[in-house]
């Protein structure tokens, strides 16, 4: 595994590091947990790290904060969708994770799925729902059960498993509160997997796959972050060939979207062993229940080492020496 925290990284060489956390999305609570974990890890290694909450501080203050780089621990809108990345590009402050376009694409589930499909990558069939959609026609086309969820949210917020056509309107309205576009997706009956990816382009590589075993297969917001009843298997217990297939698929999905730095691909595995891509998380959780640190630990990388490596790779789409000069 080439992605390791280099022992010779001097904490002072990272300069003043901002940890962006909290924010205004529906995932604020989780982001605060992620960000505080990252902040503690950086400070434990002697990094000059400081929190910055865009919901409580004007983002214009980023320019005056004197950050040499930032770790984006924001989740969801205004943090994972290319908006904060665009501002950091304008300010010339290197940041962790994917750039503007890849972040925006990965946040938009229908756009992600269309791009994956155009490259022949497997992902469940879907439809975008709006108030005037013929829900019965969608059910007839995609079949039941269906997953209905906002097109641009994470952490299973606003998600409903629809088992009867009569539930479609209520499921749509629940998701539509959070997003003008709502996604209906064919349900894959099988094992739920996730696979972190690190690096960029040809150097991108997958960390070990994690198999998620939730109570009654209900891996919802509560079971993701606030209970200890969900089991996480890492090693995944998959046959080696299948593990490698899932990892290769995750890397290809990462590359197709143009992601960089780090991300996490969520995958469903059918009962006959066929993997289907669900979504790509470009600012994964870093809480005590989070999965990327778990996969890193499986290959001997501690939480603190992983955080140091991620922040050391902070960069820009447009590198500083390419900025226009008057």
Automatic annotation (TrEMBL):
Chemical reaction(s) catalysed: 2 D-alanine + ATP = D-alanyl-D-alanine + ADP + phosphate + H(+)
Cofactor: binding comment: Binds 2 magnesium or manganese ions per subunit.
Active site: 27, 155, 290
Gene3D superfamilies to which the protein is assigned, alphabetical: 3.40.50.20, ATP-grasp fold, A domain (3.30.1490.20), ATP-grasp fold, B domain (3.30.470.20)
Keywords, sorted A to Z: ATP-binding, Cell shape, Cell wall biogenesis/degradation, Cytoplasm, Ligase, Magnesium, Manganese, Metal-binding, Nucleotide-binding, Peptidoglycan synthesis
Pathway(s) annotated for this protein in UniProt: Cell wall biogenesis; peptidoglycan biosynthesis
InterPro entries documented for this protein: ATP-grasp, ATP_grasp_subdomain_1, D-Ala_lig_Van_CS, D_ala_D_ala, Dala_Dala_lig_C, Dala_Dala_lig_N, PreATP-grasp_dom_sf
Any one cellular-component term (Gene Ontology): cytosol
Residues at which Mg(2+) 1 binds: 266, 279
Enzyme Commission designation: 6.3.2.4
Broadest EC class assigned to this enzyme: ligase
Cofactor(s) the record lists: Mg(2+); Mn(2+)
Superkingdom: Bacteria
Ligand binding (Mg(2+) 2): 279, 281
Domain ATP-grasp: from-to ranges: 113-312
Subcellular location: Cytoplasm
GO biological process, alphabetically ordered: cell wall organization; peptidoglycan biosynthetic process; regulation of cell shape
One function term, GO molecular function aspect: D-alanine-D-alanine ligase activity
Pfam family, one: Dala_Dala_lig_C
Chain's role: Cell wall formation.
HAMAP family per UniProt: Dala_Dala_lig
Family, per entry: Belongs to the D-alanine--D-alanine ligase family.
Protein's name in the database: D-alanine--D-alanine ligase
Organism: Cupriavidus campinensis
Lineage of producing organism: Bacteria, Pseudomonadati, Pseudomonadota, Betaproteobacteria, Burkholderiales
